[in-house]
Each structure stands twice: as C-alpha cells, then as structure tokens.
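Hi R.,

Here's the chain you asked about this morning:
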Amino acid sequence: MDQTRDSFGTASELDDAKQNLSLDFGPPSDFRDPDLDGDTLREECGVFGIFGHSDAAAITALGLHALQHRGQEAAGIVSYDGSRFHSERRLGLVGDTFSRREVIERLPGHVAVGHVRYATTGATILRNVQPLFAELNAGGFAVGHNGNLTNGLTLRRELVRAGAIMQSTTDTEVILHLVAHSRRTRLIDRFIEALRAIEGAYALVCMTNKKLIGARDPLGIRPLVYGELDGAPILASETCALDMIGARYVRDIEPGEIVVFDEEGLHSHKPFPPKPARPCVFEYIYFARPDSIVGGRSVYDVRKAFGAQLARESHVDVDVVVPVPDSGVPAALGYSRQAGVPFELGIIRNHYVGRTFIQPTQSIRESGVRMKHSANRAAIEGKRIILIDDSLVRGTTSKKIVRMMREAGATEVHFRLASPPILYPDYYGIDLPDRGGLLAATHSLEEMRELIGADSLSFLSIDGLYRAMGEPGRDPASPKFSDHCFTGAYPTNLTDQVLVEPQPRQLSLLAEAS
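And here is the predicted structure, written out as tokens:
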C-alpha cells in the first residue's frame, strides 16, 4: 500500500491554480431551480464506487439502493469493461431502473461508479443526472459528486467565457472542465489542480479506464468511507451501503484526502494544508441513515442522545412521547427514556405515498399531510402528548400535524425539536430556503408556537447539541462541526453569494434534452 503525502504544492497554489486555468472571478449566474414547497430538509446526494470486481455494476446498484435516502430524484451508473465505458442514467428511484437484469447487463466491467441525486444546483432533468462522463485527452473520466461548490457558478461563468461548452446545469460539470483545462501531465495532478480551484463541500467518486478515485473536501463537510468486498476496494457515502452488500468497513477517507485505487493498490494523496475537520452536523440530525456510522459515531445513538438532552432542557409533564416519523423516532426514544414517559407511535406513516402524488384540487391539497401521516387515535386520545421531530424549516407540516393530533383527541400538544432553530440557509448541499423562508429566522419562539398551534415549543440548544455529541459545548473559536444553519458561521468562502449580479439562465431551450 502506497501512503504518500503529495508534493504538488502549498496552500498558496489555490490562487495559482485559478490563474493557470485563466479564471478571473466575475459575477455568477443563478442556475438553481429548487423545489422548496415542502417543509422538510431536502436530501443531499449519495456516491458509490467499486474497483476490481466482476459484478461491479450490480454491486453498485445495491449500494445505491442503500443510499436511496440521500436522493430520490435520479440515479446513474457508469462502468468500464476493459475497452469501453457504459452509462445508464435515469430519473426516478434506483429500483425503477437498476433492478432489471437487462439494465445491469448493459453495464459490464470490473469497475463502476454510481450516484443518487437530489438537485441542489441544476434542475431535475436527464442531462443533470450523474455520474457525468467526458472524454479527455487522457481518456474517459466519470465523476459523481455529493455536496455543493460555493464558487461553482463563478467558475462556470468564467469557463464558458473561455470557450467551454456546458452540457448540464449542475456544478459538478465544472470539475470535469477544470480537469480538462489543466496543463499538468499526470491525471492525478490535473485532478488536484482542479480541486484547488473549487470551494465548498464535496465527496467525489471518479473513475478512469485504470483507476477509481475518491476525494473529500479539506474540512470533511461531506462524508466518504472506504470498504472492501472480496478484496475489491469500495468508496461510499455511508457505511450502510457497505452493510447492504456485506462489505468490510476499512476507514473514513480523511478530510482533504484523495485516494486512488489501481492494479497496484491504494495511493493516498494529501495535497491540502491540514485543517481542523468540520463535518456537517446535519448528517447526524437528519441525512445519514440511522444504522450508519459517521465519523466514528453511531447515527442512531447520537439521535437518541439528542432526544435525551432535549428532555433535560425542556421537559413538561405529559402522558406520552410521540415521534414524527420516521426521522423523529430515535430522538423520541431517547427523550422517552430520559424523561421516564411512555413512548407511543401516535402517528403512523404511509410509506407508499410517492413524492409526486397527484393533488388535483385544493381540498385534497389541504389534506396532503394525511396522505403521509395518520393519527393513531388509540395512542393519543385523551392524553397530553409531546411531539418530537428532528428539525423545523417552514412550519407548515408541523402545523398540520399539531392540528391532526388535536382532532384525534389529544388534550395537550407540546412540540420539541431535536436540533436548534434553523436561522441561516445552507450552501453545501442541503436545499434550504433563503433566510426569509426559514420560520425561525423570521419569527420569535412564541410566534412560532402560536403559528403551529402547540401548547409549548422548544428546540435543542446549540450547546446541548454538542454535549449530546460528547463535547463540553460549542467552542465559538473552534467549532467541531459545520453548524452554520444554526449559527451563521460558514466554514468556507461563499464566492457565489458575494458576487450576485444576475445572469441569464443557460440551456433553457434544451431543458428536456437527454
């Protein structure tokens, strides 16, 4: 195993890399087309890759199935059979396409990378589905990206000005063009130069005809793990994808690390100056599957600890603790145990309602929450209840659930959130509204309580969040996590937000092209 510290350059080469690529940072274009009608945190994306296995595509499909919770709008796989690359990219769920034998048979080869997507930049159209693929002068190159580049729009505008022809509206395509524009000789050096030019959050899984490549941003905002199956190395967003296929977890990819797998084994490159890690705290609050291990911590145990800390901070006398399913369940278990109050499934979730369920009339639209959640009257009628949810974004769903509980006979309805108030938007891969669309940013606690109709409302404190994670509290001078949605302390530059001159949207006439 070759564990080497790359000698590509120093921190100052970030600017050099941008100059080498002839990028003179101007105002960005706005290519975002988010669907913000819901009242939940939007998923990020999931990536998966495997090298040196005869069933690479089938294993990748299973891995993506395990990561489906990270993105339900589209899925794609690219494979290489020793002479040709093969690609299948489709809108919809993994099982909609990749459960069919004929699809997997169209993806032969011993190496494959895959991606499940929720759109944080770029509309949900087929040309934006990843992994993206391009023919470079060194050969084919495919890339899947979890995260969001905070200077992606700025880089894109300058690449287009320099003559680049963009085929999608996703920031991931910028990475392809940066690699293509680099004048370095070795592909790994070209890849490193591209990464030096970008800002923000990324976990990347890439492939060539000879290599599987993984990379994690210098702060480790987005997760990426390394595992093995029958001696074949695997890269995945979460450990649950390794569990799904019976693979062995080896280790996390370190923040700022680039790993390359080829016929000679693993090569590790660390071209960035080391920084204190700042992983995204929302992986623990919402995004990661409860059975995953993120940064050495059990997500399930952390969520229970959030609930227990919430009970210490804001408990009131009630008869039952009720989770808002499914994300509120572990926190409600922790709350129930700490408070000594019975846990009851007072809300039953309908798992068979799709995200695009037709709502043809206003009356049906108004009752939409009942399509996903139903009150379990036997568990709550005549009782004082505490509802536990993971977070509060707009408050519209919370309002409907509180009303549903009262209509089912609850005598008191108290609401508790197992995270602090969301006060600031995210620019690293979580699709949140701008600050004006965040309930906690525009209303006082009492105004929020009155709006959702609860008897009381309380959030987990920011110090309580850290204590539940095993820390003494939040150190403002050196926070251990990316918690900017609660604090406004963004861990990277926000170039695209500073340079706000609007530009025309691109590809509007080609939006439906494949």
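One quick note: Residues 15 and 200 are 15 Å apart (CA to CA).

Cheers,
M.
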